[in-house]
Amino acid sequence: MREWAEYSIEEGGEGGSVLALSGPLVVSSVGLLDRELRALQGQLARVDLARVDAIDTVGAWIAWRVARDCGAEITGASKEALILIEAVRTSASTAAIAPPHVPILVRVPESVGTMVSNFGHGAIQLLGFLGAILVASGGIIRHPSRFRLRALVRQLELVGVDSLGIIGLMSFLIGIVIAQQGAVQLRQFGAEIYTINLTGRLSLRELGVLMTAIMVAGRSGSAFAAQIGTMKLTEEVDAMRTIGVSPIEALVIPRILAAVLMMPLLGFFAAVLSIIGGACLADLSLDIPFYTFLSRIQEVVPLHDVWVGLVKAPVFGLIVALAGCYQGMQVKSNSEEVGRRTTMAVVQAIFMVIVLDAFFAVFFTEIGWA
Amino acid sequence: MNALLAQHRVESAERFAGEYPIVIEGLTNRFGKQVVHEDLSLKVRRGEILGVVGGSGSGKSVLMRSIIGLQRPAQGMVEVFGKSMTDADPDENIGVRSRWGVLFQGGALFSTLTVGENVEVPLKQFYPELSEELLHEIARYKVRLSGLPEDATSKYPSQLSGGMRKRAGLARALALDPELLFLDEPTAGLDPIGAAAFDRLTRELTDTLGLTVFLITHDLDTLYEICDRVAVLADKRVIAVGTIPELLATDHQWIQEYFNGPRGRAASQSKERVEAAREGGKAPASGNGPASGKAMDKPAESGD
């Protein structure tokens, strides 16, 4: 059982009241005493510590504060207590614990203003980032020996090979969903056979690449931002600069190239897997044999659908990698920032991918690849 | 009041009365195939500043992590305040955790909180009954006690220099008025003036607050200036513990190289110069702070 510090007040006497503290006057025992002493009013002549059996700086602080606030002197303090009281007395301060709280009427306009100015600032910085990438690319083209093949291969593995499993599984399941849901609707017209057209065209044109881009943004875009951001925090990026290694060349370009090169492959892989998923479902529940499904795909899917997917894929890869690397390079000051920037990288990447996808859809239809 | 009492997790405020707050016996630590410690034993006396030295990679920090329960040893026994840290569930040791303070190498401050709020974290965690005002007051004087200026209280760690971050880390380590203080290279990376001030501060606080300090360091000046005893970590164990003259009397090669190398001799000479100056100036109290009268807490004899 825990022992608490206690107090008693002896009224009157010569010179005024005496506050007598007793028991252990340490951090674990003074919580309740402190609340009661705060409510205390009026003047005291003395604060008596004779019956205190243990004291630490928190106890010494409370005794000293009460004595100060009530104009009392401290008596009966042990040698140890006197040392501690002297230590806290010389360390007393009135500093604020947190920066001053800003009222909401000031805070809201201020943060809106900051957002607007940051937006402009961010646009300029993004432009600067793109410029830096172009300059670094130019440098690499002129001096191909500076190109970091190892880093590229490593990123190709991380972005591409390592994500084959999850992207394959996801696409396979999406293929099943498209075929199943499509079949339910088309059956009403007796046009179940068009499930093949639906699955094939949708996978190759839209969903394969789009879902892959979202998956790569979540898997690799976030990793880019977090890795580069942490390297900024630990001053690794600064260290590179001082050695004469451009962080853009060493960190950003391999990642961007990896994403650009891998996205078409992953997108095509995803489309193939979702067609297989559709074929499996058709075989099992629509009475369309597996190989019939695949050979019909060749007849009903125009070749330009494949091109539509393959043209979009590297653009999406570029956007995902740019957002990840850019946000990573923007990290400053603390670890909270790494989390915030990583989230921003993923959100921006997915948003931009979907916006561009809508643009591509209109564009390809206009040029006759409907 | 009963509701308040019910939620306390810290049972008693009793101070440790035994002779050895830290006892390590037969400690073995391994990372995969790499053996860091093998059959390591060490006792830390109450009220002393024990310096722990050893070459880079000799496992000084790992030893500290084993004592404070962040690293589960492969074998051996670690007792802090007479309670085993090795086989107990971490939650059972909560009472022990409220009685030590740890300063990590980089300060390890919570980067989203101000210095003052950092100091309040352990207090809030262990003593929820403390009022908001008292928490603020404690945070304020602890920050100044650690040698920081007043206005550092409301700053974020990212706004502080490396030396100030160490002091802020010390303020947080001291938040609970611990009996036991772990310092991991407190003066590394500080300028000589800052390092000397930090040494003085450690000594003063130790004497004022009656602390036991486990101090990992590479700084020979720190060893000469403030450590009561020094433990030498080499060959995966503690090869010697004692005062510096006692260590110099051993003929282990590493110890000789360490203390008799050019840096060791410089530090030793500077210590002698300081002492000569003190005696020449007829300083009445030859102690290291306002509380040199508190020397009775220190062990009178030395060496094992």
The main sheet of chain A comes to: 4 strands, mixed
Shape call of chain A:
elongated
CATH architecture of the largest domain in chain B: 3-Layer(aba) Sandwich
Task: Kindly provide the radius of gyration of chain A, computed on alpha-carbon positions and rounded to a whole number of angstroms.
Answer: 35 Å
Kindly state the number of beta strands of chain A.
Answer: 4
Report low-confidence residues of chain A grouped into runs of 5 or more.
none
Give the averaged pLDDT of chain A, no decimals: 89
Number of helices of chain A: 12
Summarize the structure.
The complex is a heterodimer of chains A (370) and B (304). With 370 residues, chain A is α/β, with parallel strands linked by helices.
Notes on the protein architecture:
The complex is a heterodimer of chains A (370) and B (304). Chain A is α/β, with parallel strands linked by helices and 370 residues long. Chain A has two domains: 6-90, STAS domain (Transcription Regulator spoIIAA), CATH 3.30.750; 148-366, no CATH class. Chain A contains twelve helices and four strands; from the N terminus they run ββαβαβαααααααααα. In chain A, strands 1-2-3-4 form a four-stranded mixed beta sheet. The termini of chain A are far apart. Chain B is α/β, with parallel strands linked by helices. Chain B has two domains: 2-99 and 178-297, P-loop containing nucleotide triphosphate hydrolases (Rossmann fold, 3-Layer(aba) Sandwich); 105-177, no CATH class. In chain B, 37% of the residues lie in helices and 20% in strands. Chain B has helices spanning 2-6, 60-67, 94-97, 115-126, 132-145, 162-173, 192-209, 220-226, 244-249, 253-260, 262-280, and strands spanning 22-31, 34-44, 49-54, 75-80, 83-84, 100-103, 180-184, 212-216, 229-234, 237-242. In chain B, the strands form two sheets. A six-stranded mixed beta sheet of chain B has the order 6-7-8-3-9-10, sandwiched between helices. In chain B, strands 2-1-4-5 form a four-stranded antiparallel beta sheet, with helices on one face. In chain B, helix 7 links the parallel strand 7 and strand 8. In chain B, helix 4 (115-126) packs parallel to helix 6 (162-173) and helix 10 packs across helix 11. Chains A and B meet through helix 1, helix 2 and helix 3 of A and helix 4 and helix 5 of B.
